[in-house]
Design goal:
The structure holds 2 protein chains of 2 kinds.
Chain A (H helix, E strand, L loop, with lengths): L2 E11 L6 E12 L4 E5 L6 H8 L7 E6 L2 E2 L5 H8 L2 E4 L13 H11 L8 H11 L16 H14 L4 E5 L7 H18 L2 E6 L2 H7 L2 E6 L2 E7 H6 L4 H8 L51 E4 L2 E3 L2 H4 L1
Parallel strand pairs in A: 3-8, 3-9, 6-7, 7-8
Antiparallel strand pairs in A: 1-2, 1-4, 4-5, 9-10, 10-12, 11-12
Helix pairs in contact in A: 3-4, 3-5, 4-5, 5-6
Chain B lengths: L2 E12 L5 E11 L3 E5 L6 H8 L7 E10 L2 E2 L5 H7 L4 E4 L3 H4 L6 H11 L7 H11 L5 H6 L7 H13 L5 E5 L7 H18 L2 E6 L2 H5 L4 E6 L2 E7 H6 L4 H8 L50 E3 L2 E3 L10
Parallel strand pairs in B: 3-8, 3-9, 6-7, 7-8
Antiparallel strand pairs in B: 1-2, 1-4, 4-5, 9-10, 10-12, 11-12
Chain lengths: 316, 321
């Protein structure tokens, strides 16, 4: 195992109030080297919090995240830097994640310098090399972010992440902000890079079709918990948890024009993470809920090889 | 059949330097029909919609063309008359419901304001607006009327905006990416709601989106825009099942399909869309098109209409339906 997330809980107290945002409520996940773990879920399910915890932008309230048997703790800065280098984050919006007043070359160089990865005289050629890796030419170095298209900016963000020579890339909605015709290009680049550098990916998205395309294993999250986990084909083609089923049914499908009705797949809205329903958090919206669902929290239990579900009715 | 609204040769330019943003856009809708306008950012889909309501941002203006609605030319009518039409006969739902609503006014008062502005005479305005909230599926409408927009979730806010836009039973509803900011299960709820209201009210609809999947089961016809021009129009089935313009085909091919056979690579369209004002008299897609010939760079392909289908391409892909 490369990355082990063990029963992680993350709570954010709200200032001047007694309430707490329960972002993660006991998450356990593993990613092996070279594997891509896709994480899907709607807003507020905790997927981005998880990304922030792994790269150390936040520390867990409880539980541990282990990287190659080293527990990641928010300790001294230097220790963090050593851990941060193997795990890099690519953000959703390349319009806000790049410094508008910094030239592209500088922005990549900064990472190499910060992690002390090259001798001074090698830095420039390394920047060129990184740009080439993401399919961009050397003359981009002197440009500013506003001179680039969305797709080009996201390539720069990826080059910047690769500059730290990571083993794990955390991709938080990496193509959601891009136009449809350039999404495919960036997805193809990610697939190529994974192969070329043997990278491990944590791919976070609300777009199931993109997650389907790139993931080996998929975890479905709902209100800070994993409700279903398994290989991509099992989870997407034979979903077992009622939430996964509803999520898949809600995706607009362009391959079935006129055949699909627009019936609602799931009534109501996701409850607030400050006030999570008791027992199974999904029971208030669940079509198959029974009275006991409101007081027992279902655990993630394997039902077939390579597929686990946290639902007492499915497991029964 | 007579069209409810038709845009003829509509071109939009910047006022200061005359940069062309959309060119020669022709769209028409008959009563009760729903048309999807699909395009990427900068394709001119939102400007086209805004021009109908006379809401183009400052510095952008209609350079030529005509917009006729029920026999009236919206570009030359009296501003007072346009104010009457706007909100009453044509209404609009925007992408971000938070900015579409007034943050310091209760939802109830905002709804009543719509009736007031249009001098709409109803016996009991309070119960009329309450009914409108019930119709869009807002639980506890009495409480909702007294609440402020920030007290609602994104999905509920969009329902409020939809209630507001339907309040005066418009003939045409223009929706500009109304579900883009929402989660998929909420998006489905909104699509289902709009779809029901449309068929119940026999209302026409113009649905603007970058997401092909959204319109696939929602509208009757689709117009695809690229770099300020319409490149293909057809019934939803024609567009999705047998796209003829290479751009439409490329867009559809770039979407991952939900099947258990996973492709290693997604088909992609090389390059990025050009700025509409830099295209000139050639096909705007020529530089990215795998079928482009010399003539594509020398002349501008115009929309060629055959039956229910129009394509602006010298070398369209043969139709299979």
């Amino acid at each position: 195992m490369t990355l082990v997330i063990d029963n992680v809980i993350k709570k954010y107290p709200i200032r001047q109030s007694k309430s707490v945002v329960n972002a993660l409520n006991g998450i356990s996940l593993n990613i092996s080297k070279g594997q891509t773990l896709g994480i899907v879920g709607e807003s507020g399910c905790g997927k981005s919090t998880l990304a922030r915890l792994i790269v150390g932008l936040e520390s867990p309230t409880k539980g541990a995240i282990t990287w190659r048997d080293n527990v990641l703790l928010r300790g001294s800065k230097n220790q963090w830097r050593n851990h941060l280098s193997p795990a890099q984050l690519v953000f959703q919006d390349p319009y806000s994640s790049l410094n508008p007043r910094q030239r592209i070359g500088e922005c990549i160089k900064e990472v190499i310098v910060a992690h002390n990865l090259r001798q001074k005289e090698e830095i420039d050629s390394r920047v060129t090399e990184l740009l080439k890796v993401v399919g961009m030419s050397e003359d981009m170095k002197n440009r500013y972010p506003h001179q680039l298209s969305g797709g080009q900016r996201q390539r720069v963000s990826i080059a910047r992440a690769l500059a730290a020579e990571p083993e794990l890339l955390i991709l938080d909605e990496p193509v959601s902000a891009l136009d449809v015709s350039v999404r495919a290009d960036v997805m193809n680049l990610l697939v190529d890079l994974r192969k070329e550098f043997g990278l491990t990916y944590l791919f976070i998205s609300h777009d199931l079709s993109m997650v389907r395309h790139i993931s080996d294993v998929i975890a479905v999250m709902y209100l800070g918990r994993v409700v279903e986990l398994g290989t991509w084909d099992k989870v997407l083609d034979s979903p077992q948890h009622p939430y996964t089923k509803a999520l898949i049914a809600a995706i607009p499908d362009h391959s079935q024009v006129g055949q699909m009705d627009l019936t609602v797949s799931l009534e109501g809205e996701v409850p607030s993470p400050t006030n999570i329903p008791s027992g199974c958090a999904f029971h208030v919206r669940c079509p198959i809920a029974v009275p006991s669902c409101s007081h027992t929290i279902p655990q993630l239990i394997p039902i077939k090889s390579s597929q686990s579900v946290a639902c007492s009715e499915v497991v029964k | 059949m007579r069209s409810l609204i038709s845009l003829q040769g509509l071109s939009i330019k910047t006022s200061s330097d005359g940069r062309s943003l959309t060119s020669d856009v022709n769209i028409s809708l008959i009563e009760g029909e729903a048309l999807g306008i699909v395009g990427e950012s900068g394709s001119g889909k939102t400007l086209t919609a805004l021009s109908i309501l006379g809401l183009l941002p400052r510095g952008v203006e209609v350079a030529s063309g005509e917009i006729s609605f029920n026999g009236e030319n919206l570009l030359s009518i009296d501003p007072e008359r346009l104010r009457e039409i706007r909100g009453k006969e044509i209404s609009m739902v925007y992408q971000d419901p938070m900015t579409a609503l007034n943050p310091v006014m209760t939802v109830g008062n905002q709804l009543l304001e719509v009736l007031d502005c249009h001098n709409h005479d109803v016996k009991d305005p309070e119960s009329h607006v309450k009914q409108s909230l019930i119709e869009v599926g807002i639980p506890d409408p009495d409480r909702a009327l007294k609440s402020y927009p920030h007290e609602f979730s994104g999905g509920m806010r969009q329902r409020v905006v939809i209630a507001m836009s339907l309040l005066l039973s418009p003939k045409l509803l223009i929706a500009d990416e109304p579900t883009t900011a929402l989660d998929v299960t909420i998006q489905r709820q909104i699509l289902s709601l709009v779809s029901k209201q449309r068929s119940r009210r026999q209302m026409s609809m113009l649905w603007i989106t970058h997401d092909l999947g959204v319109v696939a089961n929602l509208v009757d016809r689709v117009a695809v825009m690229y770099a300020g021009r319409i490149v293909e129009v057809g019934t939803t089935k024609q567009i999705f099942n047998s796209p003829q313009h290479p751009y439409t085909q490329g867009l559809l091919a770039s979407l991952p399909v939900a099947s258990s056979h996973r492709k290693n690579r997604l088909a992609s369209i090389p390059g990025v869309p050009p700025k509409p004002w830099l295209v000139g008299q050639s096909c705007s897609f020529a530089d990215r098109c795998q079928f482009a010939q010399k003539s594509c760079r020398e002349r501008l392909p115009l929309l060629d209409t055959r039956g229910t289908k129009s394509v602006a391409c010298f070398y369209p892909i043969a139709s299979s339906i």
